[in-house]
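Page header: ASSEMBLY MODEL / two components / 1396 residues total.
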Amino acid sequence: MGYCINHPEIETRYLCMKHNIYLCEHCLECRDPDIYCKFRSSCAIHFISKKGFDSKTQKSLSKEFSVVFLPDDVRIKIPKGTTLLEAAQKADIYVNASCNGQGSCGKCRLILESGTLGNKPTSLLSDREKENGYMLACQTKIADNIVIRIPEETLEKKLKTAGMGVDATQNLAGLVQKFDPMVKKYTLKLEPPTMEDTVSDLERLKRNLRRAKCDTVKMSSGIRVMRQLTQAVRQDNWKVTASVLQKKCSLELVDVRPVSQEEKSLGMAVDIGTTSIVVYLVDMQTGEVLSAASGHNSQSSCGDDVINRIVCSEKKGIKKLQKMALSTINNLAQRALASLAQSHKNIENITISGNTTMVHLLLGIDARHIRREPYIPTISEFPIIKARNMGLKAAHYAGVFVMPGPAGYVGGDIVSGILYTGFHKKADITLFIDVGTNGEIVLGNNEFLMTAACSAGPAFEGGGIRWGMRAEEGAIEKITLNSETFEPDYITVDNKTARGICGSGMIDLLSEMHIKGVLGQDGRFRINPGHPRMTVFNDESAFILEFAKNIDSEEDIIFTQSDIRSLTLSKAAIYAGFTVLLEEVGMDFSMVDQMIITGGFGQYLDIEKAITIGLFPDIQREKFRYMGNSSIAGAYMALLSNTHRQQAIKISDSMTYVDFSSSTRFMEEFTKAQFLPHTESKLFPSVTRSYLNSPYLN
Amino acid sequence: MGYCINHPEIETRYLCMKHNIYLCEHCLECRDPDIYCKFRSSCAIHFISKKGFDSKTQKSLSKEFSVVFLPDDVRIKIPKGTTLLEAAQKADIYVNASCNGQGSCGKCRLILESGTLGNKPTSLLSDREKENGYMLACQTKIADNIVIRIPEETLEKKLKTAGMGVDATQNLAGLVQKFDPMVKKYTLKLEPPTMEDTVSDLERLKRNLRRAKCDTVKMSSGIRVMRQLTQAVRQDNWKVTASVLQKKCSLELVDVRPVSQEEKSLGMAVDIGTTSIVVYLVDMQTGEVLSAASGHNSQSSCGDDVINRIVCSEKKGIKKLQKMALSTINNLAQRALASLAQSHKNIENITISGNTTMVHLLLGIDARHIRREPYIPTISEFPIIKARNMGLKAAHYAGVFVMPGPAGYVGGDIVSGILYTGFHKKADITLFIDVGTNGEIVLGNNEFLMTAACSAGPAFEGGGIRWGMRAEEGAIEKITLNSETFEPDYITVDNKTARGICGSGMIDLLSEMHIKGVLGQDGRFRINPGHPRMTVFNDESAFILEFAKNIDSEEDIIFTQSDIRSLTLSKAAIYAGFTVLLEEVGMDFSMVDQMIITGGFGQYLDIEKAITIGLFPDIQREKFRYMGNSSIAGAYMALLSNTHRQQAIKISDSMTYVDFSSSTRFMEEFTKAQFLPHTESKLFPSVTRSYLNSPYLN
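Prediction written out in full:
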């Protein structure tokens, strides 16, 4: 034994016979002399051959490195050349990575605690950050055994978005009148066979199902149920529970068990969003939501928006993304089940609501043409699928209903929203908006349904905003500025130390800055650069929301000129969408009777301020309704009732999709809406700027 | 090194430290001192511990033996305690074992060439056989490394039963008028999507299917086809072939591929008999039978009849039998495909015809109650099953139609027979008999169908008959006796050296013996025991059909008093069945317009002789029709046409099953029919005995 010539603190048994020096395992593993080995690779090879490493050891030495992720001490072996982001994904650690590893969002910041890494230069990290060991996970390849710390702001935290917990489900009570699940249960007492009554077990069961008004002519049965039948009917003295799955035009006998083995029948409603996934577990007898769970869609590490996800699926295969979404859902279901002390085998009905890309990827269906003109999805109306065929943990025969979606950029989540809010059954003209990454709009009533997507981008969900984040712990969700000093006063989600700013906080901030003169109508800073809150980041002006020292951070929480630009573009896209969609049917805002807003804002969404920045139209405030997560609510309704499932299909079929991507009218309106609140201020008569002649303003 | 104290010819390194003697590996393996080890097991154990065998060696030493099967030199490792029959099954060597290993049929004779075996005493082997190393495979447990020779008569040979080859299929031409397979193909040219026509890929396909008269409202689609859709429609410039599986009340889109990847569509008709399995490969466009293959149902090693098979499935699990049947079918299909140079992926349609037990076991469905009063099958009408779900090698989406069967002992093979012979559509009264192991009878016309099974037993298929065999190479299938000397003159299948006697041969023989006075009307030998052809076997009189010396065998081919008894019981059961079934509807033989005989006899079935022994009624000879394997013919019809599949279901539904198992009338008639030809000789006016006063007769 001796001490490594490169790492004198490490005792090692590897002696180079040629040079008569010791090298530690790290040095033997590292073939790149430029990184830290003082001896050439030829030495290491010589070494290995002299010491007679077996081929297995040699292979593992030359190929794999160990990575430790702190604070949770997650350990993983990783082949050389893997990026840190890929390593984190493999270790099931969900780090923010809005841009899908392109090195453009700067969110996947990790800190190197020990070991050496070769990382590409980036302008997204400040010099101080670089000095402190910060690096972008997606830009860093592993070539050493390393220890990595994941900073607070990079780790994904518990979601606190409105409308996701069981407490939000009280609105659902009474929504469904008659329960009619996909898997219908029949409890039957069969007549035991005699020499005079020798029909087969299956025929005997069918006879009794017919008496219970089940249309057995349309009924088939799977091989699994045929195999269990003989024992099942006899075990409990011919008393059985038969489960029949209702498909589009046929029935399938999916389970037969002795009546004594009957268990609680659960349903699961799933809202699969690009950002987050929500799961409800429902008692199929009472309709009660027994438990709920929500979490980040673990596909997030492949990019914030659907386009990035599709690109990722094309590059790395759909299966990768499918697996990520499935594991998120299965884990959430497991968590919700654990709180009920129930097994996944009791889940017999599942409904899934999500945008077109999300459901395609979840089902492993090619989504590539959604992002290419003319933007065609593979499927719009899905058949009833068996849970086991798509990888969801549930009863093996559980039926899955996927909410249909009318277009590539208007999906089942919007159909769910219509189903839940019910405006498709009323004469009132409704303008419906789901503010997510895409900004889907529906205009209509009981006579027509027009829809469009307006590429709002993920700004309101924190994407593309330097300190933007979702409505998680520590997100600034409400903010006011002092009219004179512009000192901010804010509230964070759960009153935790500020970690960033979420959608409702950004609307507040933009509105305050606009009203109070910090910004001009063109969205540019009017405030004096010498203001104590002003700083410069990457050659841009930026407003400091919170100083690093107050929040025990390396960096101030800032709001840059680029962030303002991103938000302004988003709000302009949505407003332009409203305008052009109304125009399509010869209407204007004055004819709108109701304005429904859904989506994952924080609970403090301030409609008034949203109007102030020109996101929503300046119409009577009582016309506005914020309805939280309408996608999961619609999924819940479809879970319990075939009427609602059929209605969803009808809604989807009756929606007319308007494509804005090549509309010059949309581009005109979009350009006009990029002012605060709008180039035509007469459209926003109630918005007045109230700023004083502050010494800080130019 | 030293020499084993038990086997002085073997050099060994295993020295017992305690006794200071050498033992070879064989001795160490053998823990049973009574068999051949002179040293107690305690010594062997002592040995192993002293020499420090590693646990793996010790385990293998104490657990496995090598068995070599000649003449094909098949080698296999077998745990101690396994029977030779089980070893042969594991090695995929199909030895005759009519009684399912109960030690009662004496057919699984094997010859020990080297090594030692501990076998139970049996009266089924002659002393000479025992001396020559013969043993019953099912009664012999392996406790040594051994070499076994499989004698000619034990190995199963190529079937030559009538109606199984392609040459027998000429009768099928023109049987099916309109082809309507389960999997229907649509070749379509879709319109490429545009910004004005943005429906999803699936909706676009459905639109075109609707134009091609496919009822897409009833159509669902599996997840697999949804996953392949996007690429499939675009690959060949929107020209596709869509395959739609027609189920009972719904359709399923099962495959979409670019038109250039379209391949020949094949169908497979399978007749799964208790004894043998026949496979036809059919061109689904022309209806032509392209190739055929037949072989033994490899379940045969679990017993000759359905009862033994059910018992075996209860003891050893259904999966074992299911696997045997599946591998037989898959192997036959492979053979048939090879002759066409086609892949199993081209098989898109499959029909299966078999008795109720066979199809239950093939599908892995519990059959145990078929053998218990009131004899209830699990399923009588089967849904369309996917080939992949049942383990058949075919296109993954291939549909499988299983012929429905009305009762536990009257199955889909009989329904197939009716479908093929078509008497259910005519006014003529038909009596239909399938002489297999069970003897199923149908009486009826276009107004009624009565059916019964009469437990004839497997005698006509060679079961329970010492030299009985199926119509394979070397089976005596035609035989006459010299009227004076009683010297036999016979023909064998393929003119090969005689190996035994098959059904048609036995009918000939029994008839000859009866007519010529060798037997009395009671079926007992009247011939002088001193006749050169007479011998004694197991204390019974027996007639020598062929001397051992003429056929290079250890044993004469004989026909014993027990064999005659078995045959007489079988023919009596069938005749009694006819009588009682006619009685049930107030009819007698004179009212029968047509008598159809099907089943696996050799090609020389002599109706006249069958009447002579009282198997068939003494009615006009022109009423008889022998129709070969009607089960496969019916399966062929159902393969091509939905009309025929639906007709099969109707036939099965309309059949009334009469149970003979507790019928006193059947027992009375059965007893009366045990004479040759019958106790009431007036029932057989045309049968006269022609024997001379031979000096050999008592």
